[in-house]
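Journal club prep — side note

Before the paper discussion, L.F. wants everyone to see what a predicted structure for a comparable chain looks like in token form. Sequence:
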Amino acid sequence: MDGESRGMGQAKPSGEASFFGGEEHLYHAFFRASMGGVLFADAQGGILDANAEACRLLGRKREELLAPGGGDIFDPSDRRLAAAREEQREKGSFRGPLRVLRGAAGSAGSFEASVTVAAYVDGFDEDRLVIAVADREGSLPGPGIVESTEETFRSLACHVGDAVVIFEIDGSLRYVSPSIKRVLGYAPGELVGTVALDMLHPEDLEMVVANSVEIWDSPGVAPLFVFRCRRKDGSWVHLELAMNNFLNDPNLNAVVAILRDVTERVRAEEEVRRLNEELERRVAERTAELEASVVRLKENERIMNATFEGMASDLAHLSPDGPYLRVNRRFCEITGYSSEELLSKTPHEITHPEDVSKDEEHRQRLLAGALSDYSVEKRYLRKDGSYVWVSINVSPLYEGGDFTGKPNYFIVVAEDIDTRKKAELVLGSLTLREKEVLLLTARGRTNPQIQEDLKIGLGTVKHHLRNIVEKLEVEDRTQAAARAAELGLLPVSADAAR
């Protein structure tokens, strides 16, 4: 049979710690003094110890029970065993009738027993089980097992650090160990014979009475519980109570209880709980702040993205190492590339070869700190092979407002100046007389009228017009006048001038 069937083999649930604590050997003696059968087992159900009555009830010697496989004490054919195991797994304890094996392994019979199983942690922080067995079929204990159960309890209680009390069936105190003085400040004689309900904290009274009623109705070891009790000086102390119901034991006919002062432990637990609650509160507040910050950041990012894309200027973010990091729609339009294409390119790749050196010189001076920003006119090579004149302003952006070291990126603002620049170039190629002829032509003057206005020969007028048509890359004087207007060379249209 496996460990679970031997002792129901389950470790204690959280909250069942310190059932016996560091004085386990004394509590073993307590239970050995019982007229019922008591066994101690590890979490897997292996028997660690058994009192004389347990050996008698099970028909085995202590050495047999402690031997490997000797702890098979429950009848595997008992249909109630599975439910008992499940209850012990969930609650940490079980109390009820079960069939218990009697006799050597392989030839054992069985008998109906009242069984109590409770989990605890020993002084070495090991999970343990205490198993109490009482014969429900009326078998009488063997002679000479214990001469005086109560006297044994009394003598052991004198050496136990925790307080030990014995309750009468009516709840009054029959016996109180000397250590009660340390725990509650009372001498034993001040409490013997009293029920002492007035010492219980009002908020715990109902719970203690309810637990006591259940314990009084159920023989065996009861799960521990904690309550508050008033000391003689009026202060409150938290007590952990472990009880064993011996009301059916003719030698004792009482309930034995062990009282342990756990005030410091409870305070520590409450402080841990308070700190956890405070931590949870702060985490919740900080989480709310972070969530709000994320919302604001996302909103700011949305606004910035909308602003970046909606700017009337051509905008780009440029890495100090070369590639474009971000470009807006207008920047794509002026260069003829998509944003994906531009993010894989450097400024040199889309700059007219004649303008690269001048642009790079300014960038290096900006990186060296010699310039706070710079502006320059240059030509972008468009995707279709044409070029367009732009005026760009480049300024660095530093992280955290620190204006030293390498910038995070450059902000590039570009302006399309292609029309103006080309007009300037064309205007610069015309002589003063050619400009005068072009202006009069645009105003609708005929060649003879231009001859008269400028006091030059007619052939000279025609020569100037041929030069103007060639330089403006048009076919005749009419197109020359229109081209001059497109380039902004004329302050007013020809019709307005007339």
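L.F.'s comment for the group: Residues 73 and 101 are 5 Å apart (CA to CA). Keep this in mind when we get to the figures.
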